[in-house]
Every structure is written in structure tokens, then in C-alpha cells.
């Protein structure tokens, strides 16, 4: 009897058989085990019958089956093949079965791929492997049914290994037996050759059916169990929820039915060989996944992963991964790539979307292993400002009232660390069973998850809130991932109201075991969690709050104080404001230094700008807001220049934002330092005038009232929080009253990097012409000389040096990094920040260290912090003088670091300074100061009294001792060593230090270090700021002589400025905008010991636009006739109107008390009191300070007042009249005289 054979009937046969398998699977795993045993016995019997047939059957002809339709095709017309073929089943096609034959085995030993007659497609190794591999997939049946096994940890490895070796032996034996008994033609055209050559076909038929039945049943049951576990773990959500249904002894009935439906759908393919490659690839993927999982567990060293398989190792896992991956590519590369993409997609979806499962996730072990490894590699000593990012610790007391702030800081972190810290006030009770913080920790985690914050939670307990905050700041984070910025809410007069609502939280959270209603109730119950705080809720006192702010700064962390964030509505940002984007306003103004209105910003202002830039780059803020930077100026004339500079700086820093320049002279006018401080001195924040704070508040509200958020500089907290804490908080309240959401920032981090050859950020602001620096600087090596008799200058009393007030003040703060000074020097565990380019010019030793250790701090051992600071102040653009104390500090450092320029300065000071003879000789010998040594020997006379028994003498070298003794015994004095002239040869060729060309306007070229020049010149500073590419060549506004003088004056050893060279140096300092050099020149011009006439000094100051120093210069003129002589100079007309007006003011002051009788006057004899002249006789032009000679001014005296335009009232006398009965009035203003004085206009 033959069954019908067609694709439809074959599908029905498969469905009927699968129904039988479905029934058996629904009956449970116990029946499957019994069926497996019976099936194994049947298969073994059938296979044994075929072995007997191979042994006893002889040669025979085997008919080719009719299902091999290609074999029965013949040509319709043999003479014309183009007419096609037709199937002729009347043919009697046979193939040879040779029985056991080594000749047949030899013929079949090598491959010869032909067409597969079931698919009529050519075969190859990949297809053969895929077909055979599908027959060994049952090896994983035991692993799939691990839940049904009594001892899976023993049964699975043992059964799998036994199955592998049994199958391997059976397959190899079958292949060799068939190859030795059947011809190649038979094997290629009859896939049922075992059935056709057996004693009886029924045995092989039963064996094939039993094998297929058991394999299908095991796959059906195994797949249903896997599907059931997927549904229990909720890996695919509600999609597989029905698969969880179980009956009886945990029999997943629905999973079995779903699996059976999938099997029926596969039957529609028609032939297994068509999808053999696909099934093999997915099986290989599953095996590779198992190997990868075990390899990952082994490499991550999971303590609870303890496999019992004797030969398990990571090498075997890796070999399995490589082997399966290779065979996937061999089977089908394109389909393998598709399978890998599907697998990776599933892994990503499950990793990010799937909930936690009872069996755990290998991804957590991998993440832990990688995080630990890379945290160890993340070395805090390798930090670089180029890769700086904010790592924020947000201190929260009542999270129910800080939801907006929590969300805002989440936008501000820029992929950095975000830690939410909270301090619980209390003690750890030793009798408590568990830590009380463990009970509240899940609520905090759920709140973070429901708010969708990417943050960690740190809770601590302390008796004192301040001490607890210190613990959080020190211990939060791990390794190099520790907070560098602390954000804290402002201390309001009354606690903020709770704003946490259930609608603000996510609706569903897979990982949280606490629903959102419970979270809201917990954080809003009573006055914030009474069950957590046990009713002991206390706010920080103002003093403690201010101390917390100071603690943050003392720990060198950036500080941000947030206020008015209850007004922040991020949903309103999307709606815009009048159809326009809202602004993120930045006010980088230092209220304690209102005179610093330029772009030479310190770290705090740059950090402020960086935070605003990060916020504007956040997704929602970028779409609905724009960055706007304000800069305040004191003069309307500077607005356009400042705006251009601000735009250039934003462009250099690659910050997209609008620039706005605001005049604030109406605000600065209220700034009146108290306690006698000068206008350039930084006063404490608590001493800022209320009117000044109120005016600034009104100005900010006028410009930023509708801003989305405003960022300001935070005034520095007071030194004494106990005395000024409440006053400081009141000042901050008045400062930010009625503002939009405001972030007050004080930064200490250096967040901008300046590479060696390219300037991307703001150069150092240390010499910015807008920045006033600390006073108290003395000029370097003043040249002693006698005053000129024609100048009218008189020396001060007792020969004391006259020090006029100079308002060009320059200082450098080395304790904090800025835009250019980013290289830290570690001295006695304290850091000083320098510019490596600058110190490389002075010291080849430090330059070599900078090259050898790039981007790392330099450790200076065996030196004192104060000494290094003194050295840095001496070589930087402050012109700090070498004095009695500093020379002994500077000499060892200059000698050790080979600073020849500094050694030369110290040598010049010692030459002109009085020290004990042997001490001078010892210093010259110790530090190789040959010029000083020669001068000492020349001053020495034969038979001089020299202490040859003292410690100084014994400390001398043998060479110097010999020279001393020879000189004592009458040897000739050595020839004098002249001071070496300054050489510009190093600047005429390019080198590693001087790598940029600077060209004078006359065409002469020199090579300099642009960063060193920028430290001295604001012109170069702005050029570097506006240069986005490498610095190669720059132009300066000086002539060749002026540029040469400038280079010699600023480069070591720094040319001594005197009367002969002050002209070009002063002009170059003016054109190059060098505050330090201007101050040095001004000190020399205003010194009474300088051998320059007052008119020459006045002309130089006037040409350099130092008009504020003109009155100081004219104070050296004590007689009116000297001023009149100055007006008769040929170059008088070249003076500006401001210089002429200053001369008129001085003349008015000198003529303050006219009208005395001529016969009562006497010429002043005391030269040291000439500055106190109060009256003059108009007849004989004599002066006196004797008030007894003053006659009654009510008779024959008419006085007139002159308005000079500088606020000084003066009188003037018309010299054309005899006597002084008549006077004329003059309004000088800026030199526009209304009358004549002394015969000149």
C-alpha cells in the first residue's frame, strides 16, 4: 500500500504527527522520559539491523527512487536540446551497491559536490554542514529541560558529554560504512540508501520515524520550557503573558500550544533543506551565546559561578566562541550577519528595557567588572582641563520642595557624575537591628527613578549637619569620579513649600518595588518624613549655612548656590515667550572688584560661562533657549570695543551666544570702599554698600526679568561666619531679590585648556589693562641721581625717597589657575599655578621638566612654598623689587634652576648694596657671581682687616681663599668685569622656546614666545584670543627701536630703565599696552631722583596718554615761574589740551593766596618745606610759609576765582598790570583760556 505523495499530503502528514507530539507533550515531562527510553531502544535495534546488513549483504543493484525527478528527466528531442526535458518514469535506473570494498571507500574519500535533487540546487560544504548540524541540535535538550531534572548541575554536563561522544561515534561510523559499501552515484541519487539496502525497509523506516519523533518531541518540550521562563521573567512584557499559564505539576500547557503553532508554520516551508542554513545559524548563535555567557562569568570572576565540569576553563569557552562564529561565516556570511544583528538587537532591548529577573543578568556582572577596571585606570593624577566635565554633588534637605532643582542639575551635569546627598541628623543606635538609613534608601532610589534622574544617592548620619555635609563632600564618588562642584539651595528666611506631586513622576517603573503614590506620600508626609527624622527636624542656622559654603571652598570645590528655582517651569520653555526663545543670562561681574570690567576673567567667571554653555547644550534647553553674556563697562566709549572683544572671545571658545555690553557707571558710583580702602582694593562682601547692591539688582532685573535662568558670580563668604553670617545672607537676598531662577557661582577649577601652539581659549588675564591689582610695588633698581636745579624739584626730608601714588597696579594670583596659568607646581603639598611657556623662558631646568612631564604637575622638592612664591612674583610682570630679605631667597632658587636672568638681577642689587665684605665674597663664590667677586676684590686694600678665622672664610672655596690672600699680600687687583650688554641674538632665530615671529611695523622680524609676550602685553593677549589657528607670525604697532627696547625690557635679565632709554621703552609699553612696564616707567618718571626735567616727564606721560598721572608729575613744580618757563618751550604746543589744563590747575594751586605787601616778604630758606608754600609776593616774587607776614586781605585786594575744570579753585594775576589791583578771570577747562596769564595764552 502506498500513501499519496504531494506537497499537500506531506504537510498533512507532518501536522498529524505533530498533533501526536502535542498530546504527548501536554501529558507532561514524565511521559516524555518514558517515551525517550522506548525510542532509544527502537533506534538502537533498527541501527543494529543495518550494521548486520552491511556485514552480510553482497553486491546488488539499487533502484533510483521516483522522488528523484531530475534523474528521470530526458530530452524531448535528443537532436534539439533547446526543446527542454520531460520526466520519464518508465526508465529502470539503478545504482551499484558493492558491499564492503576498500576500492569503493577510496572512490568516496574525496568530495564531489553535485545538485540536491530535493531542492534542485547545487550543494557545497556549507550546505552539507548545515544539514548534518541540524541533526545534532538535540544535544541541548537536557539544558532546555533543566527545570525538570532532579540534579541539573550533574545531569546536564554528564548527559551532554555522553551524547556528544555517542553521536560523534555513530555519525563517523555510519559515514565510513556507507562510503565503503555504496557507490558515489548511489549516494548522490538515493537519500534512502540505508532503507533500500537493509534486510527489510521497515526497520530503517521505524528508526527514521522514531528518531524524528523523539527529536521533534524534545525540541517541542524544550522550546516550550524556554518560552515559559521568558514569560515568567517578563522579558517581553505582556506579549508572552499567556505563556505563564501552567496546570498540574507546573506543566506549561499554553507554552506547548504556542510552540506547536510555530512548528506547524515551519511545515509550510515544505523541505527542511531549504531552511537548513537558517536553523543551523540560529543554533550556532545559541551555542555561541552560551559560550560567551560562561566566558563572561569566568572573566568577571563571579564568586558564585563554580562550574562542576572538570575540563571547564576560559580557553575552552573562547575556543567554542571562535569555532561557532567561524562556522556561521562558513555556512552563510550574509545570513550570519543578519542573525548577529537580530541577536544584538535583542540583547540591547533586553538590557535597557527588561526588568530584573530572579536568575540575574550577566550584563550586571560585565558592567561591574568593566567599571571596576576602568575606574582603576581613571587616574586623578592624569586629569586634564581639556576633558573637564562637571561632577556635581547636590545637597538636598527636603526633596519634596526641590524637584525643579533636582531636574535642573540633571541637565547641568553634561554626562558627568551626579550625586544627590542628604544628611540625617541623629546617632547610630548600637541596639538597633539594622541601619536606619537602609529603611529610607529605597524611597530615595525610587524618587530618583520616578523623576528620571541619572544620579546616585548618598545618605549619611551625623549629630551635626555641617559635619555630615563634610563627610558627603569627602566620601561621595569613587576613585577619580568624585564631585568637583557642590550645588546647594539658598538659605531662605522660611522653609520652602513642598511641590512634589504624583503627576510629576513617571507612571510606571519596572525596577521599583515602591509605587509612586507611596513615594509622594513618604516625602510629603508632615514636615518632610517625620518617620525618618523621628520628629527631629532642624534647619541649618545662618552661621552653619555660611560655614558650609566656606567648607566647600576650602575643599577646593566649585560652589553653586541656587535660588528661586521654584519658579522654574521647563514645560513653559517649550511654549516660548511671545513666540521667541528665552535667554540663559550670564553676568560675569565680580561685585567686589567693579573696576575689573574687562575680559581678563578669573576662574570663577570662566567657570560661570562654562556652566551656562553646558546648560545651553542640553537637549531641551538647546531647543528653547539662547545663551546671552553681559559685560559691564564704565565708559560709553569702550562699548563697541568691549563688544567686539566679547564676540571674539565667545568665538574662540566656540560658544554660541549673544553678547551684550551694558554701561553700569550708575551702579559703580555707589561703590564706596570703607575703612580707608582704595578704589582698587577688594573689600569684603559684607561691606558692599546697600545702595550698590540695590542698583545692581535693579540693572539685572531690567535686562533679565524674562530670562529662563540667570547666572551670577557669588560674592565670597565672609571670614567670620559668626560675626557676619546673617549680614552676608541678607546681602545675597537683596542682591537676588525678585530675580528669575538664579544660580550664584564661585568657581575654583581651571576649565579651559590652552595648547602649546594653538590658542583656543582666553589668554591669561594677569596683565589686563582693565584689571587693577594689589598695591605696594616698588620700582626695580632706581638709578640714583641728583635733581636738576631747573626742574623745580626738591628732595624730600631726610633724604627719603619720594614714592608718588601710581594707579597702574599689577599683581598675579598664583594660587588659582586661570586661562593660561594651568600647570601646577606642587610645593610642600600646596599648588602654585604657572604658565609653562613663561617659566621656560626664565629657566631651562623647568623647561626640560615641562617637556618630560607634559600635562602633569611638577613637584618641587626641598624648597619652601613662600620662597617659590617670592621667585614667581619677582620674574612675572609685577616688577617686584629685589630687597635685603628676598635676595637670600632668590639666589639659591635661581642658581638651582639655572635662571641666569634672575641671578643677574640679584648680582646688580648686591653690587649697589652694603653687606659685610666676607658675606658678599661668600655669596659671589657660592653662586658663581664673578662680576660681584671682582668688584669685592678691587675694593679690598692690601693689609686690610679681614676675619680669616670666621665661618664665612672657611666656607669659601680654595680658589677664592687664594685670591683673598694674594690680594691681602699686595697682589694687583683683577680687571673689572663690565656688565654684559643685552643681546638680541636669541630672538633673531627660531627655537623651541621662541617659535612665533613678531614683525615691527618697519618690517624687522624677531622670534618670541607668544605666551610670554601675552603676559606682558594686552595687544598680544587680544591677538592670541582672536587667533583660532596656530600662532606663526604676528604684527606689533611699534617701530624697530621700540620693539627692540620692549623685548630687552621684559626678557631676562630685563634691561634697567633709566633716563637714556626710558623714551622708547615707555612708547613701546604704551603701544603694546603693558601695564607692568608702564608702571615701572611711571615710577621712574615720578621719582624726584630722576635726572629729567619736569617738562620732559610731562611730555612723555602725555604722549603715552597717562593723563591721570599728570597732576602727580606737576606736584614736583613748586614755583609758578617754572611753570611759566615750561610754557615757553618750543614743544609746548605739542602737548594735549589735558596736559595744558593740568598745568593751569597746578598754577592756580601755587597762586592760592596772593595779595601781600612787598616790603614784608622774605625768601624761603628751608628746602624741605617748600611743598607747604601758601602765599607769594607779586612784586619780588618771593615765597613764604610764615603766616605772621600775611597782611589783612580785606584792604586793596581783589581776588578772582578760576574754574580749572578739575574741581580745583585757583586764582591768577594779570602780569601786565603793575600791582594787583585788577585781576582777570580764566576758565581753563581743557586749556581753553578766557583770559591771559603771564603774557601767554
Automatic annotation (TrEMBL):
Residues 752-802 are annotated as: Disordered. Keywords: Membrane, Transmembrane, Transmembrane helix, Transport. It holds the Pfam family BTB. The keyword Signal does not apply. One of its GO terms (cellular component) is membrane. Residues 821-914, 991-1089 form the BTB domain. SUPFAM superfamilies: POZ domain (SSF54695). Belongs to the SLC12A transporter family. GO terms for molecular function: chloride:monoatomic cation symporter activity. The keyword Translocase does not apply. This is Solute carrier family 12 member 9. InterPro entries: AA-permease/SLC12A_dom, BTB/POZ_dom, SKP1/BTB/POZ_sf, SLC12_C, SLC12A_fam. The chain crosses the membrane at residues 12-32, 38-56, 125-143, 163-187, 199-221, 253-271, 278-299, 311-330, 337-354. It is found in: Membrane. It is a multi-pass membrane protein.
